[in-house]
Design brief:
Elements (H helix, E strand, L loop, with lengths): L1 E5 L2 E6 L2 E2 L5 H22 L14 H5 L1
Antiparallel strand pairs: 1-2, 2-3
Length: about 60
């Protein structure tokens, strides 16, 4: 994965081909909406939501922190 400027727009590319993506703000907002929906549905079933990440301390936490 690389980021290139195409027509003066930062574009995520895979093997030099542009791929569809969203901004970090949109991705985090969508994730928060999803987690809220899961949490609300779990409360009715008396379940607990747990998030697990592979290598999250190295890759995810610095971005989310």
């Amino acid at each position: 994965m690389t980021i290139k400027n195409i027509k003066e727009i930062r574009t995520l590319c895979h093997r030099n081909n542009p791929v569809q993506s969203v901004t970090l703000e949109q991705a985090l907002g969508d994730f928060l909406t999803f987690i809220t929906q899961v949490k609300n549905s779990d409360e009715m079933n008396n379940n607990l939501t747990v998030l697990i990440g592979h290598n999250s301390a190295t890759f995810d936490v610095p971005v989310l922190h």
